[in-house]
């Protein structure tokens, strides 16, 4: 095989591991109602499940990024697949909140090792001009896992039940680990004797621009897909479960269409990336405003419009990783990517918890309760937009100064 063919094959297996990781990550999203009954928890308890998973994921981003820079992608991908398989097995057998939390925590731990490792493979295997598109393609294909965690998982839960469904998910993790061991070839990075570059990556304004980009664009769609979209559509908007599943799949499919377009535009017009980010934030806030101010339950066409707009959130967040690559050398791509990814998932955890706590405080699960709950997203959007503008200015000034002194 040619070097290019080998790089594509390795990338493909890495992306497959990411697809399975996304499936594990979002498997709770459509199982929320069943999880509440099986584990005997309310809205806050469901938030705790998702919060623990995402907090572990977010808190491990920087340490995992440092390990990826030191150990290479293959080792971290294999370990992540095995840990997620164990997490799904624990979740399949869980009958209370604590075992459920343990299972979701393991899933978050293994998931944290996956995306950063694949992004490192992309950054080191493909030319810089192709990197934004390849990152978008990675995110796009990864969303097949979100599709599998919607309608097929709903069908499996209703047909086979809780334990067989999540045991089947554990088997996917084992398959992923086997493929990674047999196909991926990733040389261990050379030891330079230098520190992993955490301080340098954090001090770089472009890294924090990427972090706030990821945070402000990802959080709404992540909260919707991972936990609250299905209950909102079924309990809050009165849709049949099958229709809700189709809408969740529509969100993912539209994101797969939007991803390559944003990837091309980000590569073609790198100095306009922040404008794309601000457009994504603004349209997301506008779509939610239209749904939340609608008296009573929103019509189906408006809910379709909402999920179409939310579809740009995932691709928009990928621009954050392009900032990490642009403003950092190859020796600290992992840790810079970890900072960016961690910031996005801290924002997602915040939204998920705020929605759950607000639902319990307001009481009920009708349109009015969800209206107050989803209104908690506005402060995070506002903060994210302000920080994107702030660090865009800092990054541009630093870049101009470097060019002037060259």
TrEMBL record:
Membrane topology term reads: Multi-pass membrane protein
Regions crossing the membrane = 7-24, 44-64, 76-93, 105-126, 133-154, 166-184, 209-230, 242-264, 276-294, 300-321, 333-357, 369-389
Query: What PROSITE patterns does this protein's entry cite?
Result: MFS
Q: What InterPro entries would the database entry show?
A: MFS, MFS_dom, MFS_trans_sf, MFS_Transporters
Concerning Gene3D superfamilies, the annotation shows: MFS general substrate transporter like domains (1.20.1250.20)
Recorded hits in Pfam families, A to Z, give: MFS_1 (PF07690)
**What residue stretches are annotated with the Major facilitator superfamily (MFS) profile domain?**
10-396
- Name the CDD domains for this protein: MFS (cd06174)
Q: Where in the cell is it found?
A: Cell membrane
**Keyword annotations from UniProtKB, A to Z:** Cell membrane, Membrane, Transmembrane, Transmembrane helix, Transport
Q: Does the keyword Glycosyltransferase apply?
A: no
Q: Which PANTHER family match?
A: INTEGRAL MEMBRANE TRANSPORT PROTEIN, RESISTANCE PROTEIN MDTM, PUTATIVE-RELATED-RELATED
Name of this protein: Nitrate/nitrite transporter
Q: Which organism is it from?
A: Streptosporangium amethystogenes subsp. fukuiense
